[in-house]
Amino acid sequence: MSFWSRVSRIFTVDDSILDERFSLGDRDEDDDREEREEQAADDQGHQSVDDKENEQEKRSNPRDKKTFVKPIPLQELKQQELDKKVKKREKERQRTNEDEDSHIPEELYCNLQENRKTIEAIFRLPRNKDVVVREFTIASGSIRCFAVFVDGLSDKKVINFHLLEPLMVLSNIAEESSAEDKFKRVKEELLPSNQVSESSKWVDVKNGILAGSTAVFIDGVNKAIVMETKGWEHRSVSQARTESVVIGPQDAFTENFRANTGLVRARLRSERLVTEMMQVGKLGITDVAIMYIDGLTNPKLVREVKRRIKAIDVDFIQDSGILGQFIEDSPINIVPKIMLTERPDRVASFLVEGHVAIFVGQSPFVLIVPVLFWSMLHTSEDAFIRWPLGTFSRLIRFVSLVFALLLPSFYIALTNYHPEMIPTDLMLAISASRERVPFPVVFEVVLMELSLEFIREAGIRIPSVIGPTIGIVGALILGQAAVQAGIISPLLVVAVAVTALASFTIPNQIFAFSVRVLRFLYLMLAAVYGFYGVALGVMVSVMFLSTIYSFGVPYLSPITPYRRSSADVVIRGKVMDQKTRNWALRPLDTRRQGEYSRPWDPMEHDSKEARRASEKKNTPNRNQGDES
């Protein structure tokens, strides 16, 4: 779709566009109908593309029926031509992939040499030097075998002590046994591994080898044993780097896929916690895990997440950030609608609220969908401290968001357009400080903001040994030199420093980046229209945030559209008051606490009612204990 088509689609009131948008609502008859249609489509199969094209040609042929042919607009003709070119390129791409894999059979051979030749063809041997083929024999040399693994992905100690040694040294298989019996005994008795599977498909064997497993081929059997031997080097669990806290867990995700899922399961020990596996990529396969709580998360949300991931047609997904751009709503928007986090405790807290977590390959960041605007200003530390302190911290972040977004533009609007709003003494001080400055205020502010961005980028890119010194050099030496040289005013240095500190208080890095970009837009509005431009920008921003969605959930919910919800949205309410989950996610279970969370406290509940409710709740357990 072209740029102007996107713009016209935004400003067009079209019911079909609204129907295409995913909406996370309560389960209705349409959901049941969609499930029945999907099941029927899977059972009956889809009609071939050629048959559909032939039917369309027959319907569009004017010679068959004497009907009036409506002229097609030029824009639709261009779009049809573009779609034809895209389909043609896709067919050529599929044809190329089929030609490359045409020499690879679907099933394994019984002959060991044929399997060896196929392995060499798949992995481009002997040019490929990190794919190892180890030939050996078992049962006193009567059975020929070979094992295949990738050096660097597999643990050689596991291969030597748990695969080669049991088969070559400890095996005792009767020579008169059939090939199938030998294969069965090797798999069930001689391989002491917790994960051993068999496969007769070359695709499964290839994917297992590329994932770090070892494939064992036995002569006379058209199957291969795929043994779990993963053991590549990776970073151990360490402290979080982008979401550090003072109070709370200090561990973070690493570049190990299974270690990341295990960190979440270690915190959320529930049999209802489901992890579904998927694979994305044609050239390089990337494992993707979808984690949610069965019976709590809305099934419609889970189906939508899986639908978007399955629809990705790309050669390789390198990181979770790339996958997030493929599946998020309106990726051209400047504000993020998917959250990336490296903290297992935060993922667990989102899961119990009804969200879905997405693990991508060896990425140390996990995607959380859907996400709300208010979550961008929350930290995991808020839940670990008392509610007055947590509420104060959140209010500080909200004020910091306003300062980081609007303080430089306020400075421009006050000094250029509305000096009468400044007290006289302060105005005289500002005028005296700018007496030697030869540049206009707008140029001053833009110069300081760009310098701040330069310092920020330099502090990230340079080696970590001298990284902390960049902030000192940039903030003290350059700022002091610029003031003494008369390039900028001292008050502007203070304003920009406060803006930088305010932007650093935003916990989500991607959201903080969006605020930095929006700050330049507000600078331009303030330079042209003053406070009227700033007010116009704020109104447009709020209207825009009120209209966008994250996986069918309004971005500003439950404030707009307003509905009484959890006490942990804007402010950090008391733990005992957080009885319900956010209604916007449409969880299957909206209750997360009992009515009397502190039955022993007479200041919170009526002690008699709470005691009766507690006794009523524990009565069945007592009766069961008496019966036993």
Automatic annotation (TrEMBL):
Q: Does the keyword NAD apply?
A: no
Provide the residue span(s) of the region labelled Disordered. Answer: 21-102, 593-628
Report keywords, A-Z.
Answer: Membrane, Transmembrane, Transmembrane helix
Positions of transmembrane segments: 356-377, 398-417, 462-481, 487-506
Give residue spans, biased composition: Basic and acidic residues.
36-67, 78-102, 601-618
Indicate yes or no for the key word Membrane.
Answer: yes
Tell me the Pfam families matching this sequence.
GerA
The record's InterPro entries line, in alphabetical order, gives: Spore_Ger (IPR004995), UPF0353/GerABKA_families (IPR050768)
Gene Ontology terms: cellular component: membrane
- What GO biological process terms are annotated to this protein in UniProt? spore germination
Q: Which family does it belong to?
A: Belongs to the GerABKA family.
Q: What protein is this chain from? A: Spore germination protein
Organism, by scientific name, is: Collibacillus ludicampi
